[in-house]
Design brief:
Layout: H1 3-11, E1 16-19, E2 26-31, E3 34-40, E4 46-50, H2 53-62, E5 66-68, E6 77-81, H3 88-104, H4 108-115
Antiparallel strand pairs: 1-2, 2-3, 3-4, 4-6, 5-6
């Protein structure tokens, strides 16, 4: 997966926008204004994704490309190096999980708004 494939996959999801809220290098993907993925466009390709607390540590132990979330709450976020050691299908499943975890934490009104899109 390259940066453009990552970008297009994220943008294909309902209610997703992209922006550079922190600096000119950190591309952030949000679903209804809530972050679900961050990536740095000028360094080695990686992504920060939200994860269930108990699964986050398991993934770090199983995959050398999965690290504690850089500049994030390490209990819930992982940084995943996109270096070819993890399949695109698995990367997409982690993106999907992050997206859905963020939606699950939204108020019912916001979830309903997303379903109407």
């Amino acid at each position: 997966m390259n940066i453009e494939e990552l970008r297009m996959y994220c943008l294909s999801k309902k209610g997703v926008t992209e922006s550079f809220p922190f600096d000119e290098e950190t591309l952030v993907f949000k679903v209804l204004d809530k972050m679900f993925l961050l990536t740095n466009i000028n360094k080695e390709l990686s992504m920060n994704v939200k994860c269930e607390e108990d699964i986050a540590v398991e993934l770090r132990e199983e995959y050398s490309a999965v690290l504690p979330g850089y500049h994030m709450n390490k209990r819930y976020w992982n940084t995943v190096l996109i270096d070819g050691s993890v399949s695109d299908d698995l990367l997409k499943s982690w993106i999907d999980k992050s997206y859905h975890l963020v939606i699950e934490k939204m108020p019912k009104k916001k979830q309903a708004e997303l379903n109407m899109m």
